[in-house]
Specification:
126 residues; alpha+beta; 13% strand
């Protein structure tokens, strides 16, 4: 009997922890219930362990999606240069120094170059 339980446990947990199978239905665990035999308790423990693996897979997938969304949005710098006479200029880039250079370049082309100083540039990481 122990070998059967071990075989079932091995087959349940031999799958990769981070393998995602979106076709599987969520495992539903019923709370309570009268369980009198050790076989039923073993089956319940195996079901609970399988549900934990499923939850860990879902959590790993969500964390991966959240990290990729943060890294893509955090890579852009936006810089603004407000001038007294020529208006406001903006530029974006993946690097702050490039965004600063681009906004100064825009300002110099379209406005009075005396107003286009680096100390007037305000940048933020979006």
């Amino acid at each position: 009997m122990k070998s059967v339980i071990l075989f079932i446990a091995y087959s349940l947990f031999s799958q990769s922890l981070f393998a995602s199978d979106s076709s599987k239905q969520p495992i539903v665990i019923q709370i309570g219930g009268q369980t009198s035999s050790s076989d039923r308790l073993s089956q319940r423990v195996l079901l609970l362990e399988k549900a934990v693996i499923q939850l860990q897979n879902s959590l790993a997938k969500l964390e991966k999606e959240a990290n990729s969304a943060q890294s893509s949005s955090a890579s852009d710098w936006a810089c603004v240069l407000k001038t007294n006479f020529s208006g406001t200029f903006t530029a974006t880039s993946s690097k702050k120094i490039l965004a600063v250079a681009n906004v100064i370049k825009k300002c110099s082309k379209e406005g009075n170059s005396m107003d286009c100083r680096e100390k007037k540039v305000v940048c933020s990481n979006q």
